[in-house]
Amino acid sequence: MKKNCWEVKLCERQPGGHKIDELGVCPAAAEAEYDGKNGGHNAGRFCWRVAGTLCEGEIHGTFAMKAMNCMLCEFFVMVKFDEDKELVY
Fold first, then answer.
1. Residue 21: what are its φ and ψ, rounded to 5°?
2. Residue 36: what pLDDT?
3. pTM score, whole prediction
4. Which of 4, 25, 32, 35 is the most exposed place for a label (fewest CB within 10 A)?
5. Residues with Cβ < 8 Å from 33, sequence gap 6 or more?
């Protein structure tokens, strides 16, 4: 089973997560438009394209603003490895 970002990063911002009262539901966990991309639920394996995701304890903005950080993220590297040539950017 392919894991979503919130399952790997343990941010607890998915619906029902322990930090949604403090930080809100993560847009990646709620973004149904990207459901199924790279085999994830909502944008759970496409989080780098969604504004407002949590990274290193901070909420990050647009893809253009966070792209370099995302490309170095261990979760992105894992998805890239899992998907190989089928990776959706």
1. -65, -35
2. 97
3. 0.91
4. 32
5. 43
Angle at 34 between CA 29 and CA 40, to 5 degrees: 65
pLDDT at 83 over 80: yes
Of the CA atoms within 13 Å of residue 40, those in its CB half-sphere come to: 31
75 near 47, Cβ under 8 Å?
yes
Q: Do you know the residue count of the chain?
A: 89
Q: How many CB atoms lie within 10 A of CB 16?
A: 8
Sequence-distant (6+) residues with CB within 8 A of 83 are: 38, 39
Q: Are 47 and 53 in contact (CB under 8 A)?
A: yes
Structure-token pair, residue 22: 């403090």
Give backbone dihedrals phi and psi of 53, rounded to 5 degrees, phi first. -80, 160
